[in-house]
Amino acid sequence: MKKLSARRRHPLAALVVLLLALACTGGLYAVFAPADKAKADETAQSLAIDEGKKLFAVGCASCHGTGGQGSSDGPSLVGVGAAAVDFQVGTGRMPAQQPGAQVPRKKVIYTQAEIDQLAAYISSLGAGPNIPTEAQYGPDGADIAKGGELFRDNCTQCHNFTGKGGALTHGKFAPSLEGVDPKHIYEAMQTGPQNMPSFPDTTLSEQNKKDIIAYLNAVNGDDTVSPGGLELGGLGPVSEGLFAWIFGLGALIAVAVWVAARTAKAKKS
Amino acid sequence: MSSQDIPEENLPAEQDAHGAVGVADEKNPFADPGLPPHEHRVQDIDERAARRSERTVAMLFTVSMLSTIGFIASYVGIPHDKSIYVFPIGHINALNFALGLTLGLALFAIGAGAVHWARTLMSDEEIADERHPIEASPEVRAKVHADFKQGAKESALGRRKLIRNTMFGALALFPLSGVMLLRDLGPLPGTKLRHTMWRKGLQLVNMNTNEPLRPSDVQVGSLTFAKPEGLEEHDEEFQTEIAKAALMIVRIQPDNIKDKRELEWSYEGIVAYSKICTHVGCPISLYEQQTHHVLCPCHQSTFDLSDGARVIFGPAGHALPQLRIGVNDQGYLEALGDFEEPVGPAFWERG
Q1: What predicted TM-score, i.e. pTM, was given to this entire model?
Q2: Which of residues 3-62 of B touch A (CB under 8 A)?
């Protein structure tokens, strides 16, 4: 004690005390900080919701209502979930350009960060499916053959057996699944955009969805081997029959005409 | 080869039109223009050109032979799972490509060789082949008539009526034995068309997960396909049974269901309809969840699932049959009986 009191007038004593006090404060802060940190996360989340709300007010509210409750021009978005927003905005379907039988896929006008903010706002209105992760739609652990069975059971009737799409009633159509992001395919199955029925996890499990995406990649991906080549859009007998009737028969008729035509004659020059 | 190379002495002399150039008179109001003058081909007058044609034809036939050998070699040599990239076509199966190419070339070369042969080397002289009258001469006709009358008289068919009538009877009955044999085409359908595997108490099993369905699994706007409990895909009778029993399950807000019986037969808005189109029996499941319309891909029959699945467009003659469903003690969806009417296309005795 004597030693300490002897040194308390040392020129550096004040500095030591200051450092000790700072360390003490820092330590105490570290002990009590976790609660504050969670608050900070929440702030980031509510910041995203706020930003999303602003984007929504500018880009979406004219049809879906100022609180997302829907209007005569657009459905309510309460409870559709982040997955629906990510699908609709991420494929460029929303914002819609004009009313019509069906809103088509087009150029995406929001950045992924803005889409996430919109999604955060919409999911704050009511619980709904979340945006799937890579682990959910990635190819790891997928059974392609089972996916083919499931695809033929659930999807083929509209989207064709290799996902080439097809026609529905009154100008509506099932779009081609070629080149669609697996994440968006997963979200479409989960949320049922526009007139497509939904296939929730309760009836088509997460593993089922993963299998279906893997099957689509196998039959409709970039490296897919077409057994015969020249598949004429893969639309089945209609396009094949049309091709055979017009070009096949046309070529046969042209050849028949040529065979029976006058042959070149020798002439005096 | 231009005509300059043809030796002058081989060129044909200028010809007049041959054939009869008639002049119209009272009996034949149209003049017969006859055939145009025959012109020779290069190959007819120049042996070198003819030999060249011969070589071309032989070459085409040889190409065909080589292609056939190529076909056999590809079949033996190329593994069936090898894929190659061919520019405008993309990634394709190497074996299929090689087989198609060689087979096509082999057939094409045979045809092309034959056509070239016929066009350049076979004779192309025009020949007139006059028609002759179809009618037989009067003497022949008179003889045939006389023979027929004499035969009829000698057979006494007109006089002995017993023979005539029994013969007609025998000839008329004989084909019946052939008709009877049609019975062997298969067992009679019986009441098979009127019943499906569904009966009271059978649970609705999700085709995707092979698990029985709970009402909470089926969300508004979703589409699920179900089969009867106890029917497995490896069963021998699976295809026969599922062809009639396949179910399409959707959930509609009870307020949006317009048909009273449909609402009664549903469970809290969950409705179960036959998946078999009532027109010609295609599996029908192009469901639009906002309009509640189901479209058949074969002939565009459209049914409104919110209004008793009545036909709103297309050739189908009946609404889709609805299965009456409820919930059992364990909380799973179950059938409350079979379909009330035959599923699938109408048939003669359907009523």
Answers
A1: 0.73
A2: 3-4, 6, 11-12, 39-42, 44-46
